[in-house]
Prior knowledge:
2 copies of one chain form a homodimer.
Chain A: E1 7-14, E2 16-20, E3 25-27, E4 32-33, E5 37-41, E6 48-56, E7 63-66, E8 69-71, H1 76-88, E9 99-106, H2 116-131, H3 139-145, E10 157-160, E11 173-177, E12 185-192, H4 201-211, H5 213-236, H6 239-259, H7 269-284, E13 290-293, E14 300-305, H8 306-319, E15 329-331, H9 341-347, E16 357-364, E17 370-372
Parallel strand pairs in A: 7-9, 15-16
Antiparallel strand pairs in A: 1-6, 1-17, 2-5, 3-4, 5-10, 6-9, 7-8, 10-11, 12-14, 12-16, 13-14
Helix pairs in contact in A: 1-3, 2-3, 5-6
InterPro entries (chains A, B): GHMP_kinase_C_sf (IPR036554), Mev_decarb (IPR005935), Mev_diP_decarb (IPR029765), MVD-like_N (IPR053859), Mvd1_C (IPR041431), Ribosomal_Su5_D2-typ_SF (IPR020568), Ribsml_uS5_D2-typ_fold_subgr (IPR014721)
Keywords (chains A, B): ATP-binding, Cholesterol biosynthesis, Cholesterol metabolism, Lipid biosynthesis, Lipid metabolism, Lyase, Nucleotide-binding, Steroid biosynthesis, Steroid metabolism, Sterol biosynthesis, Sterol metabolism
GO molecular function (chains A, B): ATP binding; diphosphomevalonate decarboxylase activity
Amino acid sequence: MDSSKVKVVTCIAPVNIAVIKYWGKSDENLIIPINDSLSGTLSMDFMCAKTTIIASPELQENTFWLNGKEQSFNNKRLTNCLQEVKRLASKSLPHLNWKFSIKSENNFPTAAGLASSAAGYACLVSALAKLYEIEDNVSFIARMGSGSACRSMYGGWVLWCKGSSPDGRDSIAKQIAPASHWPEMRVLILVVNDERKKYSSTDAMKRSVETSELLKYRANQIVPKMTKACIEAIQKKDFEIFAEITMKESNSIHAICQDTYPPCVYLNDTSHTVANAVHAYNEFKSSNKVAYTYDAGPNAVLYLLDSSVDEFMSVINYLFPPQDTAEYYKGLPLSSNQLSQDLKMALNIPVQEPGCLKYIIHTKIGEGPKILTDPQQHLL
Amino acid sequence: MDSSKVKVVTCIAPVNIAVIKYWGKSDENLIIPINDSLSGTLSMDFMCAKTTIIASPELQENTFWLNGKEQSFNNKRLTNCLQEVKRLASKSLPHLNWKFSIKSENNFPTAAGLASSAAGYACLVSALAKLYEIEDNVSFIARMGSGSACRSMYGGWVLWCKGSSPDGRDSIAKQIAPASHWPEMRVLILVVNDERKKYSSTDAMKRSVETSELLKYRANQIVPKMTKACIEAIQKKDFEIFAEITMKESNSIHAICQDTYPPCVYLNDTSHTVANAVHAYNEFKSSNKVAYTYDAGPNAVLYLLDSSVDEFMSVINYLFPPQDTAEYYKGLPLSSNQLSQDLKMALNIPVQEPGCLKYIIHTKIGEGPKILTDPQQHLL
């Protein structure tokens, strides 16, 4: 290829973990949600998607490789995103109609149920926006790829407003506080071993909308006040309230899943044992020190302040004896303290079989998508 | 004791399994529920409580023995029941103020989470009503002992109306159809092994009322129409609709438990696997042949017609290999058929470890409490 006639963009984008959950669409094609949602963006130091796009007039056709496998372009979500990006681009761009090759990778296991599609679409849309020189908020385009991807378009704490426009143009994400606002916040991801059949969250959400009467009440009556209260708690850095809302919200969404017909049960016995441990620990400390939240899978994501990590990890290591410590701890350093006798008594939860947890990621709140300019970092 | 001065009454009373669930009280002391509920009464051939009361002027004090252990009378629920029964009794009864000795037993394990207190209080109140010659509907008195006990005061299909009187006098049970109405109905109780801490349903309900916003919506908006539809389905013997309502109701109540803060989780992985098997089987049969329902514990209670028992038991025996078949099957006879290859494929659920189920009771809908007149049947 003639390098003067090649455009190359590489981008990385983060994972986000909702504290007010997205569950249910009012428009399946455009991915417009029935309620607002709110998330923390996780540091890209340990978990991110990476996408490189090469555009050239010499390419004969568009190609898309995800984690080393070629993907079809016959994918409504992908084509919706491409169409919207091109619609926003200046018609005078010389490379607007060049074909391109997209290569995308996640640096964390896609199978672990860790919202890889959110990071992936945020990354793709960020790279396309850079390629086509678009400066606007393009979170609504990422949303068309994978709903919660719009929240991965910003760092820190991000609100996805459901909007009211039928075309979804105002169903966008905005940052409510940057990563630097609450620097003490840490996140522990406990990846749970689970051999059960996975249900797609798209199908499950659709079934919830169709069959759960409680869902309507949740979306209309409960989420609006929870969202408002959670934004305030984040702005004030009030962990006590933040934790309570986060846990109640997670419980509420899994209640809706249980109320769906047939039910979609994402939590298993291990997930519930983690939640019990969090409540027992908070009771022992006489205040909320840890908050759990669960997405469409059994993995527990724990929000906690850095001052609580060591002690709470002693709880987790006691209740869930690690099988293979070499690959078990990922991310920020974790020290392994002995659990105090008092705390052990207070927990009153039996030690679980080794192997209930696959591994643990220790991370923190981080920045939004980033364009990488060093040519060595390109994927192609 | 001088036998001319002794009154002896022996009574048996059944267990009931709700299809529209009771969850939440509007009055903790009087046990007035926040919604109507509806149940099937189970045959006393296999599960019942039995109570003998001996009253005599020669007894010095009241005593109460439950399953061979002496109980204190310092129990608000028990004293509420006694007080109400005496209030209704004729003041001219010569034995009204005699002391008495109560002995009560269940012929099924109390620890199995099989609503033993409902049968127990229904039995006690029936025996006291007989002793004091009361002919009225005394289900409201049984209710003061243990809410759902009022539904065990009748056979067949029983509605507990929450009522509207602050004193609870109209919070009573009534039969909507006798046991003979739907003679094909069978019940399978799958008793699940579970080593977790048990939560008292009284405490959990209270916490739900205090913390679950979804509960209010359920009680006020969902239960009234479900109850009406379920009564109709029973009256028409429409199993398709009956099963759907039963399963949705069970899911709804466990959704509320998950929405409670902290959550009270009664279902475990085995409970969910049973529910999955029921949905997979119904899908295979292209209609609802089996309905699950779960109370405040992991045991699955399945309603099904006699024509489905053999085939569905082949599903259960395949998914949950029995450990010790000698003590494993209780109640009505169960034949053990081979699971068809088609059905095995359709289930798509892995075979579970042996020991997930403790035992299985096969029973049917039966009659209400009964006074036993043969002196050999007395417990004392």
